[in-house]
Amino acid sequence: SQQGEEDPQALSIQEGENATMNCSYKTSINNLQWYRQNSGRGLVHLILIRSNEREKHSGRLRVTLDTSKKSSSLLITASRAADTASYFCATALRLNTGFQKLVFGTGTRLLVSP
Amino acid sequence: DAGVIQSPRHEVTEMGQEVTLRCKPISGHNSLFWYRQTMMRGLELLIYFNNNVPIDDSGMPEDRFSAKMPNASFSTLKIQPSEPRDSAVYFCASSSRQTNTEAFFGQGTRLTVV
């Protein structure tokens, strides 16, 4: 079963515009990560935000985390055609053994048109 | 490091045949994950190894699926017998500190069972 769900499922914007993707999850987490997947390729890590952090920046990326609402958002500013990809959030779920497993959401397909 | 290496990249097999997918994690990483990606079900975690020991295999679909990690540099995912519904892209990922840091993904194996 999916832990996280991204919203929207698909997003189409013009170059230069900002893109915002949201992720909601169900259970307590240790951290939340965002990944990017280009068509036909493996996933690439973008950014990790810990449960005690509220906001994090990396280049044109801004991630927020609201643990009270069990939600996160990824903002890509000044988008480029090369940002076209699927974006996934992933949450680290604690197991009974004390280990944690990484579970992915459903993804948002972003299309940035020139 | 060359990253996570998966083989083969593509596999086409007939229903009922045994399929073995291979993964070489990044040297020094002690956590390894096998995921399956389909349009219908998204990215599903199949099994998670830590220090070569299976920690969580609750995502393994059924007894036809098995995974091993005989040493820190090699893992296999076997399907026997294969069925058309097993057709998917299978990803292997590794990380250095469980899920407290980013996971590095291989390029995936696209499996088609006819």
Content-based structural category of chain A: mainly beta
Oligomer: heterodimer
Radius of gyration of chain B using CA atoms only: 13 Å
Q: What profile does the largest beta sheet of chain A have?
A: 6 strands, mixed
Biggest interface, chains and residue tallies: A-B, 25 and 24 residues
| Percent of sequence in beta strands of chain B | over 45%
Helix content of chain A: under 10%
Roughly how much helix do the residues of chain B carry, as a percent range? under 10%
Count every beta strand of chain B, where a strand is a DSSP E run of 2 or more residues.
Answer: 11
* Biggest sheet features of chain B: 7 strands, mixed
Terminal CA distance of chain B reads 36 Å
Instruction: Label the overall shape of chain A.
Output: globular
Q: Kindly report how far apart the N and C termini of chain A lie.
A: 36 Å
Structural features:
heterodimer; A: 114 residues; 6-stranded mixed sheet; B: 114 residues; 7-stranded mixed sheet; 4-stranded antiparallel sheet; 11 strands; globular
Report on this structure.
The complex is a heterodimer of chains A (114) and B (114). With 114 residues, chain A is mainly β. In chain A, 0% of the residues lie in helices and 60% in strands. In chain A, the strands form two sheets. In chain A, strands 2, 4, 5, 9, 10 and 11 form a six-stranded mixed sheet that branches. In chain A, strands 1-3-8-7-6 form a five-stranded antiparallel sheet, with no helix packed on it. In chain A, β7 and β8 form a beta hairpin. Chain B contains no helices and eleven strands. In chain B, strands 2, 4, 5, 6, 9, 10 and 11 form a seven-stranded mixed sheet that branches. A four-stranded antiparallel sheet of chain B has the order 1-3-8-7, with no helix packed on it. Chain B starts with a strand and ends with a strand. The mean pLDDT of chain B is 93. Classes of the chains: A mainly beta (114), B mainly beta (114). At the A-B interface, β4, β5, β9 and β10 of A face β5, β9 and β10 of B.
